[in-house]
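Many introductory courses stop at the sequence. We go one step further.
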Amino acid sequence: MATKPVSHRSLLGTARDWIDDFAASTPARFAIIIFTALVLVFTLLLGLPISNRTGDFTPLADAFFTAVSTICVTGLVTVDMATYWSPFGHAVIFIGVEIGAVGVLTLASILGLVISRRLGLRAKLMAVGDSNPLRIRRGAVAEGQAVRLGEIGGLLVTVAVSMLIIELAIALLLFPRVLAETNDFLDALWVSSSFAVMSFTNTGFVLVPSGIAPYATDVWFLSIIMISVFLGAVGFPVFFVLARNLRQPKRWSLHVKLTLVTTVVLFLLGTLAFFALEFNNPRTFGALDFGQRALQSSFLSMMTRSGGFSTFDIAELNNASLLVGDMLMFVGGGSASTAGGIKVTTLAILFLAAFAEARGTDSMEAFDRRIPSDVLRVSVSVVLWGATTVATSTILVLQLTDASLDHVLFDVISAFGTSGLSTGLTQNAPDSAQYVLAITMFMGRVGTVTLAAALAASTRRQLFRRAEERPIVG
C-alpha cells in the first residue's frame, strides 16, 4: 500500500508550530538561541571579503567580536570601525545595532504585528520577555506592572515609532553643526545619522574617520548626544507610560518613577564625582576652563550609562575616576532599554530594602506603593550573577594579558554593562582575551535574569515547607 507523501507545506507548518510553542513556553531559552544565531550570522557576514576594505577574509576573532558587540549594542572594538569596514560592512553593523537595540523577541513581535495586523497571545508572551524579565518564568504574575500583558501591542508600536522619531530628530539636530564642520551635504548626512543611531542605541561605535574629536568641546553637539543616550537608556516601557500620561505624574507607574529618579541621581552624582576627581588632571579635562570641565564631567557621567563615546583617552583617568566609572557602568540604564548593566531599578530596589531594614519595617515601599518580596529576590540574583560574571571574566583576562587590574576591571565591566568605553585594553588584547570579553558582552546583554530563567526553564512548585531556622548574618 502506497504511503501518502508528506508535503513541504505540512513540514513548514509543523516546524512553525513547534517554534511558536517553544517560544511561548520558554521565551528565555528562545531569546538566547536567537541571540546566538544572530551572532553567528553577523560573524559570517562580517567575515566576508566584501565587509572590509582590504578585500580579504576578516580574522575570526575580529569578525566574532564585532558581531557580538553589534548585536549586544556594546561599542567595544578590536579594529578601527571607520577605516577597517567597507560600506557593506557598515550597513551590516547598522542593521545589527538596530536589531540588538530593539530586542530580538520585541522585533519578532513587531514584524508579526506588521504582517498580520494583529498580535496573538504567543506573540505577546514573546515580547513580554523583553519588556519585563519577571514574566519570563512560568506561572501567574501579578498585573501590577509597568506594562500589562494586554498593553503589549501598544508598547510594540511605541518602540517602533519612538525609535524612528528620536533617531531622526537627533540626526536633524546634529546635522547643521556637522555640516558647518564638513561643508559636504552627503558627508554631514552620514555623520549626523551615524551619531544619532549609535547614541540612541547606546552603542558608541564611531563610524567616521574624524571621530568625535572635531566636536570634543562643542556644547551643542555633546548636549544632543547626551540627550540621545539618556532617551535610549531609560527604556521603552517608560516611553509608553509617558506617552499616555505625560502631564499626569500621579498616574506614572512605580517603575517609571524609580527609573527616572535613580537615573537622574546617578547622573548628577557621577558628574560631581568626575568633576572633583579630574579637576586638576591635565591629561583629561583639568586644563580646560570651568564650563568645559562641567560639560566634560556631565558627558562622561552620561556615557557610563552605556553610551560609549569619549572625548579623551579613558586610560588617562585617575584610578579613583576609573573606579567611579566601574560602578556607574555596572549599574547601567533602565530595564527594557538599549543600555546594559544590572539596571537602575535593581539598584533602587536594593536601597529600598536596606532602608526598610534600617527602619525596622517588613515591606519595601516607594511613592505610596508596596514592592513585593519576589522583586527583591530577583534583584539580589541579578547583582550576584552580574558580580560573578565580572569577577570570573576579570580573573581570566588578567591571566591572559599583562595589563593592570584597574584597566582590566574597567574594560570587563564595560563589556558586561555594554557601555563601550575602553582604556585601550580590548583592542590590544590577544584573541583569547577578546573571546572572554565577547562572552561577557553576551551575558551582559542577554541579562542575568534571562540566563537564570533559561537554565531553570520554569519555577518549580514545592508541595511542602521545611522547618525554619535563622542563620547569623552581618
